[in-house]
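Same chain as my last thread, 173 residues:
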Amino acid sequence: MVGLLGASEMAPSLESANTIGIDIQNSSMVTIEKLTVQNFEGNGILIQTSDNIVNQVKSINNQNNGMEIALNAERNLIIESEASFNSSNVNLLVNGIQVNGDQNYFVKCKFIGNFDEGLELNSSNNLVFLNLAKENGDDVFSLLNRAQVSIYLYAIRLLEMVMMDLKFSRIII
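reply #2:
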């Protein structure tokens, strides 16, 4: 198991003009905790493997997706994290988090002020629970495969209740 942890109450910051902030590609069971990843030319965090944990991490002001979970990356847990203000100077549709792998979990996260969707789900069997999304450019949450609707229905109904209270925009299914 590999861990990248911030030790103090103030989260340490990983900041650079490099292409990708953190790229998990050859290890599983990686834990990233209490860290800010910001101002990268590419993704803030790219997860290409399975069974990782991202806890209390902020990915902000990156030029591509705040976080991206690759096609074959499964069972990753993103908890109490934030992907906000990610946008591009070129015509990229930048999301807070883009999910291409199946069976990933998003609990108590925030997606605020991203260029395109707050959370874009391009895969199935993902759990989205008690998240906050607002002021994203296109949609709050986007489910791109209509076959997945029944899988997400319970989580989406919970999100709709939260969204009504906070006057969010819309969910596209």
